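Long-time lurker, first post. I've been practising inverse folding by hand and with some scripts of my own, and I keep getting stuck on stretches where the structure tokens seem ambiguous. Below is the full token string for one chain I'm working on. Before anyone asks, I'm not after the true native sequence, just a reasonable design that respects the backbone. If someone could post their per-position residues I'd love to compare against what I wrote down in my notebook.
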């Protein structure tokens, strides 16, 4: 996989209360990823970009919320979220990423 594809797969870290609790308890980091990304692609991209060993990847498709406004009903776009489990003792430092 080329570098451009790797950087297009990982859209960014997903920071939320649930993601913070999971990171502290089970050494998992949550990322927003491209909708067409597969588990092996996500694993390879994380290992290459952040120089860590990944032991597992769980992927979830998040449905967009339905919003109501004056003009009627609209729908926010859906997105894909990946929980990446790191090897024990490893951590990702987002400040020093390539």
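-- Answer (accepted) --
I ran through it position by position. Result:
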């Amino acid at each position: 996989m080329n570098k451009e594809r790797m950087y297009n797969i990982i859209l960014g870290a997903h920071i939320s209360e649930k993601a913070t609790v999971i990171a502290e308890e089970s050494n998992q980091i949550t990322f927003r990823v491209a909708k067409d990304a597969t588990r092996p692609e996500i694993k390879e991209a994380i290992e290459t970009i952040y120089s860590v060993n990944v032991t597992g990847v769980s992927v979830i498709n998040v449905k967009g919320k339905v919003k109501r406004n004056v003009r009627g009903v609209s729908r926010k776009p859906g997105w894909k979220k990946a929980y990446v489990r790191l090897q024990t003792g490893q951590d990702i430092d987002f400040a020093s990423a390539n």
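A couple of notes from the structure itself: Residues 39-50 form the longest helix (12 residues). The helical segments are 3-9, 17-26, 39-50. Happy to go over any region you disagree with.
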